[in-house]
């Protein structure tokens, strides 16, 4: 697959670059450039990212960072079985538990929420950092909702991280999930409050909390193009009405003079 000339491979994380040092330099550079393209495209063009990840995987399947990137690219394309296989491979190579939450979410994607809940209660969770534990809580709450256990999902999300006033990278998503869970059981007032809190914490627009909040407030968004067209039609109609009314108004004035 073509790679833009401005992509050198030096853009990748230094830890990944260190992993690639086990490869011949030319091969390492090729793999690095493909990994850069995966990272660049995964949000806007997940299919393109997946294509580059397959190239990297073909070149260096024994590098954990490559398996992890392939996993995330497959995950972004809802290829959950493939993603899970890649994440498991990466975990075997590194021994790290960092991928545990996304692996559990793959189980959800495969229609196995019970398995995701089992993973949420596994010892590996205690080895996660704070961000990973919050992510695991989000996955567990999602699994509860998959099973129709809506109240349990709400309880799962209730945590010190949710109650904290400090804003962390996970805060907006955690508040959003809690608001959505509340709304699912009809607690609209509380849901509105938590969507508003999610908006306050969502500094990079990672959620659509502002839209959900506006929806609860009954605000309707009008497409700018449609609005412009409507205004143009109104002006034309207004011009026509004025031209027709002018003679009538003059005639009425003449009649009053008589």
Report on the structure:
The protein is mainly alpha-helical and 258 residues long. Helices cover 71% and strands 0% of the residues. The longest helix is centred in the last third of the chain and has 34 residues, at 224-257. It is globular and about 60 Å long. 36% of the residues are buried. Mean pLDDT is 88; it is low at 236-258.
Tell me the layout of helices and strands.
Blueprint: H1 14-20, H2 25-41, H3 46-59, H4 64-76, H5 80-94, H6 100-109, H7 113-120, H8 130-146, H9 150-157, H10 160-163, H11 171-184, H12 188-201, H13 209-216, H14 224-257
Spell out the key features of this protein.
258 residues, mainly alpha, 14 helices, disordered C terminus
Termini gap: 87 Å
Give the uncertain stretches in residue-range form: 236-258
Could you describe the largest sheet, including whether it forms a barrel? Answer: none
Q: Spell out the helices and strands N to C.
A: HHHHHHHHHHHHHH
Per DSSP, the total helix count is 14
Approximate strand percentage: under 5%
Radius of gyration: 27 Å
Helix amount, in percent? over 70%
Arithmetic mean of pLDDT: 88
Please summarize what this structure is.
This protein is mainly alpha-helical and 258 residues long. It is 71% helix and 0% strand. The model is unreliable at 236-258 (pLDDT under 50).
